[in-house]
Please model this.
Amino acid sequence: MSYNGSGTFVVNSAGQPVVTGTVISSTAFNALTADLATGLSTAITKDGQTTTTARILFAQGVSSTLVTDATSATTGSIITAGGISMQKALWVGTTTTLTGTLTAAAAVFSGVVDFDAANAWKADSQTTGATYAYFANTGGTLLIGKDSSAGAALAVGASAYASVFNEQNARSMQFATSNTVRMTIDSSGNLGIGTASPISNAGYGGLSINGTTGVLVSLMTNGTESSRIASIGNETSIQSKATTGYITFVQGVSSGTEYARFDTSGNLNIGTATSGSQGDKYLTIYGANNPTLSLRNAGSGTGNNTGFDIFMSGGSSETNIYVRGNAAMKFGTNNTEKARFGTDGSFGVGSNANPSPAWSATSTFWGTGAGNTAFGSGAGAATFFCNNYYYDGANGRRVTTGSSGYIIMQGDATYTISCATAPTGTAGGTVTAVQGPYLQTSGTNWTAASDARLKDKFIELSGALAKIEHLTPGSYTWNGKQNSPAGVAAIGLRAQEVYAQYPEIVSRGDDGDVDGDDFSRWGVEESKFGVIALAGVKELIAEIEALKARVAALEVKVN
Model:
């Protein structure tokens, strides 16, 4: 009696099977019980008394009703001293504890694989090759691992034995806390903190930091904050926390060269660590040769001969203010231009692009001591254009100079203030001015230069009476235009009327609309009317003498 090799127990001992009516002998019965004992001894006992001698096939699987978790090598539903080989999927309903090494050759884990903090997942190749974990879906592949001894095995450019996080596709890598993304590295390598869309500019590495109120970057030394870079709204600041700290701008690392600094008092120093000693806040620029403050824009360009410069000449204390290009230098107050140097070197008060005539290019102006001002150089005279109306309200004195009138500040022993006609000469060379009225030292009246030795081609005036007949002396009040003394009564002539008879004593303006205030005024050298009147008197005397002669002749005839 035995199993037939297919798991069926066959009774084939002597005397079996028993035929009806057969007397059972002890021999046949003992043979049967022996076969049964042999068969039962071959079976697996449910209480675990027997050990299998060959692999057992379970066509319908194995079910266990034991609900105790396996906590050691001797507990659980299935205990084996050897390994377990499965050709199909393994499903574990609760936690799986591995005390040895799990080798998953080309295995795919679907669902969640959980590793607790006490027993972290360890991938160890025990060689110099790369070791990594591989995560993939339809969106791409992520490698996390330790690179090889040669490097560049897990990512292009990776160093030897470097720890590598590699998103192998053109996608972002993100880091989150509290279930919210906090940091993003996009596919171009740009880093965003607080934003999933860091700034991206082809060819540049970008860093974007975003905050709901602002951004603060704290710089620390040995755990103590030393400085900050902060951005709040539209305000960006670089802050040194220590009251004795300062902010420097350095080119080069380690032993680099400092080019500028904000010191503890808030002063900006360029080329030096030491501020000036004047004022509350100041800008100090130091250079061994030509320290320069330079302004450039799109209109001026960026060349050496463009823009506006304030600089000191090499090695000296001489200071220069230059407009490098062909443009005027303007001065103003209250957002309005008040004066300018024209492109030809002229200087004017107002807004004329090139005031004309210009102040003499060879003239100088400087202070000579407390309360003293000098014009000119040495014994020479400097000429300055004056084409304005001046009024001394305290004394009622008024002076008007025409376009050909110049004021001369004498530098010789006479200490006079005088007027002259337009100077003649070559720009940059000797300038000669024909002297006009002047005021002597301690003098009370204007004196006109009239030395015969100063005059050529002297011709006596004629026809004065005929011209005077076309002039209309009158009284009037000033109307306030162009800062004239509004409402002040005066007597005089009208320049336009005088110009038709004596143009040489009229400073001609424009013929613009008299209703406005923006026009070029006319002026008259009224002091010349004494000469014209004298010429007229002489003509009257001549007429009187002629009449007297005729009367005398008639008296002779009558007598």
In short: The radius of gyration is 57 Å. The helical segments are 26-42, 464-468, 495-499, 529-558. Residues 1-46 form one domain.
